[in-house]
């Protein structure tokens, strides 16, 4: 059997080159080692691999063997310049029998004085990938040797092909790594932004400005009123203000004033003493007490009964509560944030809301823009909900052509919640691996049947455009038809009965009512049934 050391030089070069390149994908380590084999085993000296610079304007010696650092650094060629430039341009092999007799041989890297006195030749072969030159492999040799030039050319072409594969894989890896690093950076930034803003997504100037306002009031206990249509994120913002302020370690307690019947709301907020009313079998603290040290968020404050408004005023002025059926004042240290989709000034004018309470609550009003006024955020929100529901429902669907454009042009009467519900439905019901524009259209048609037609009178649309300056009245929800699927207290019985029929199984109960489980749970929470 032949051992490696008995192989002819060129076979040994090829064998060891293959082994070297198989061991590592680091050209800085492997290419000079291959050039060294060429020099030591077959006398092809001062090997160099020349590759284009990133600017694409110059060729530069990247890897070499037998060149000193300053010689390697001098090896820079313009495109088409000298033998190297010519091989790169034409993709053809070039053999210079006598470097002293060839004006194209530039002695750019190596001075003539450093070469042997004898006649020196230079061979340059292209490094081809998919028949295109991506670089040049060049070597010197003494002309007077027993090995023919043809044998050297053959050997160099094979080695160049092997180097080409290594360089190609390396370049693909570099591209891929750079892409992943970019992605990673973008994700890290997005995550940091999300964490900074408690998952409040959106880059539109409208949202940024509201986040700014909310950030500025977070630090003190000033009473904030969040104004905005249903689903614009009022609760999300209330939580954000709480989390950004000094009360963050304390509780955030939420009550939806429209979801609880007026008769029960008082006890819900202020608590009750045992025997205060039928069913009050024990003392129970109200949500205002439970929020002690934290924030009490009163959602849909505009729906609060006028009698109860007087008690709320006292709570705000004195920070004291008296439980229903009790006669003792209990001090509470709370911040109050309220929210409403109603025009409270109008409610005051109609005698439905106390003016003094309005002033107390309206210390800092913050208006949350409806989604149609910040269509710039739709894409980011849609992608976020897509990822979220894909993960939750173990699906992997993507958005087809035209979907994002359609989502951006839709007026979203139900705002972000509607977009969220739509994406969930689209993810669950998508027939293929892509959500098509037709599927989205189908869901939107269904939705508008439920939430009522969206009327945007021509003059309202123009008015909105003229209001870009920002000092106009907020768009009233009345302008856009009835609010999108607000949770109606009358639904409570329906939900209870569905739960009873499904023996507490929420998935089945949701199915019976034609709701998604999330929508069902949302209603339970809003109505205080969970
Ligand atoms: N900027 C946002 N980024 C991501 N999700 C959001 C954003 N704003 C709102 N959401 C999501 O949209 C849904 C509706 O938000 P939220 O309940 O805060 O609205 P709302 O104005 O309080 O609605 P309602 O008046 O009907 O109670 C929630 O699931 C919330 O997590």
Automatic annotation (TrEMBL):
Lineage: Bacteria, Pseudomonadati, Pseudomonadota, Gammaproteobacteria, Chromatiales
GO molecular function ontology, one term from the record: ATP binding
Keywords associated with the record: ATP-binding, DNA-binding, Nucleotide-binding, Transcription, Transcription regulation
PROSITE patterns: SIGMA54_INTERACT_1 (PS00675), SIGMA54_INTERACT_2 (PS00676), SIGMA54_INTERACT_3 (PS00688), SIGMA54_INTERACT_4 (PS50045)
Official protein name in the record: Nif-specific regulatory protein
A Pfam family matched in the record: HTH_8
All copies of domain Sigma-54 factor interaction, residue ranges: 200-428
Keyword Isomerase part of the UniProt annotation: no
GO biological process: regulation of DNA-templated transcription
Keyword match Nucleotide-binding: yes
InterPro entries according to UniProt: AAA+_ATPase, AAA_lid_NorR, GAF, GAF-like_dom_sf, Homeodomain-like_sf, HTH_Fis, P-loop_NTPase, Sigma_54_int
